Amino acid sequence: MLDWTDRHCRYFHRLLNPTVLLYTEMVTTGAIIHGKQDFLAYNSAEHPLALQLGGSDPAAMAHCAALAEQRGYDEININVGCPSDRVQNGMFGACLMADPKLVADCVTAMKAAVAIPVTVKTRLGIDEHDSDEFLWRFTDAVVDAGVDSLIVHARKAWLKGLSPKENREIPPLQYERVYQLRQRYPELPLAINGGVKTAAEIAHHLNHVDSVMVGREAYQNPWLLAELADQQASREAIARKMIPYVDQHIGQGGRAWHVARHMLGLFSAQPGGRRWRQYISQQGPQAQSAEQLIEGALQFRESGEKH
């Protein structure tokens, strides 16, 4: 979810659902340790919040986990799922499935450094290595190291030949293989991820696992989060609740578009949804007033509904 679930997106999503665990974009240890900006910044309203960490050096991972705990994060998640070339070149992400001992060493070091949960998000396999034995060799290692929870994307990753986007769509979903991990680790909290689009699908998965991670659908159709929370506020009310936040960001030297771009899907599959997206997309990049932008988009949407 790189460049998607930034702090502005998470603030918006928290308004839609007060209880779901939100995850940051993947942040690398190098960025946290050597970067010039504050990669651990977030709004206190985002809690509960997990930091998704990319890296493979146990000492650096433990150091960054400790920094995140000091900043108040509720969980540290190790990314062993991202298949991009840039991630592979940095020796983190899905390619780490080939080195279960190294990931286990990271878990051990991080567990020694923090009291908050340390979790791992992984795939079912990589390239030609997607047997149950390959998966279990990896999961056994991190479970033995004391990982607090596993999140499993129910697809394997092709490290060669497919783009990150294609890796989210082309490898077939194999939910049953994730369900099988419940029998292998009956006491370990287990979450499933991949291709989940509806509240009914979430309810089905919860018959087999402890929790469900939703990524793309929650971004493209954020009202799904509201449905899960039995949200009483309307979409329009949620949009207006974002006005003070956007204005504060503008006042700090930011642009309205930094926030508003994450709101494009608020009226997904609703009457006037296309007009909402159109107005925000066209006016958002130049907007200087959150109220003018959001109220203007709501009025433009409603004017389309009447014709």
UniProtKB/TrEMBL annotation:
Nucleus listed as a keyword: no
Leading EC class: oxidoreductase
EC number of the protein: 1.3.1.91
GO molecular function: flavin adenine dinucleotide binding; FMN binding; tRNA binding; tRNA-dihydrouridine20 synthase activity; tRNA-dihydrouridine20a synthase activity
Active-site residue numbers: 82 (proton donor)
Role, per record: Catalyzes the synthesis of 5,6-dihydrouridine (D), a modified base found in the D-loop of most tRNAs, via the reduction of the C5-C6 double bond in target uridines. Specifically modifies U20 and U20a in tRNAs.
Recorded catalytic activity of this chain's protein: 5,6-dihydrouridine(20) in tRNA + NADP(+) = uridine(20) in tRNA + NADPH + H(+); 5,6-dihydrouridine(20) in tRNA + NAD(+) = uridine(20) in tRNA + NADH + H(+); 5,6-dihydrouridine(20a) in tRNA + NADP(+) = uridine(20a) in tRNA + NADPH + H(+); 5,6-dihydrouridine(20a) in tRNA + NAD(+) = uridine(20a) in tRNA + NADH + H(+)
Amino acids binding FMN: 52, 121, 153, 193-195, 215-216
Keywords attached to this entry: Flavoprotein, FMN, NADP, Oxidoreductase, RNA-binding, tRNA processing, tRNA-binding
Site (Interacts with tRNA): 79, 165, 168, 274, 277
InterPro entries: Aldolase_TIM, DUS-like_FMN-bd, DusA, tRNA_hU_synthase_CS
Protein name: tRNA-dihydrouridine(20/20a) synthase
Pfam families, sorted: Dus
Names of required cofactors: FMN
Domain of life: Bacteria
Signal peptide: none
Family statement drawn from the similarity comment of this UniProt entry: Belongs to the Dus family. DusA subfamily.
Gene3D superfamilies: 1.20.120.1460, Aldolase class I
Residue ranges occupied by any DUS-like FMN-binding domain in the UniProt entry: 1-292
